[in-house]
Amino acid sequence: MTPPPTSPWTARPETAADIDTVREIVLGAFETPLEADLVDALRTDDAWIEGLSYVSTDTAGTPVGHALLTRCHIDDVPALCLAPVSVHPAHQRTGAGGAAIRAVLDAARERGERFVTVLGHPGYYPRFGFERASAHGIRVPFDVPDEALMALSLTTDPLPTGTIRYAKPFGI
Question: Cα separation of 101 and 158, whole Å?
């Protein structure tokens, strides 16, 4: 699931040198600092998985997009949570976010991860293979529009059923 060859975006794992830039990307992409603070909190949590925080960069190598996978569970089954996904406002709707998502999903697959969940726009995430989670018996412990909660199997394994347990920094 790497970006098409014609994509102007390159995606790579985040480095320590990217941390401040990633925070600025996330701050610019959302109306409040909550998501940027979440990323910072996840960095120090057991849910953080080194190598599953990806940036997409422009032709000069400057990060403009970010996608993060952290550990969650579907009941007792280890899974990943895709959140947040952020793109600098000047580069939104250009494929920068998609490049980071495809790359981080590929990296997770290569590490042997099996399942990913996302709470997001139902018109966007299906292009990466996400399906309505409720169709697989997956739910969350709070109210959310059914079509916004999605899940993806990175293998041929069927998605497990159960309730998603998020990392502590999510506050859920």
Answer: 21
How far apart (Å, rounded) are the C-alpha atoms in residues 33 and 77?
Answer: 31
C-beta separation of 25 from 100 below 8 A: no
103: phi then psi, degrees, rounded to nearest 5: -70, -45
Contact (CB, 8 A) for 96 and 141? no
pTM: 0.94
> Helices (DSSP H) in the chain: which residue ranges?
19-29, 34-43, 96-110
Q: Between β-strands 10-13 and 115-119, what pairing exists: parallel, antiparallel or unpaired?
A: unpaired
> Between β-strands 115-119 and 162-165, what pairing exists: parallel, antiparallel or unpaired?
unpaired
Pair 54, 92: CB distance under 8 Å: no
75-107 pLDDT, tens digit each: 999 999 999 999 999 999 999 999 999 999 999
Residues sharing a CB contact under 8 Å with residue 33, sequence separation 6 or more, in sequence order: 27
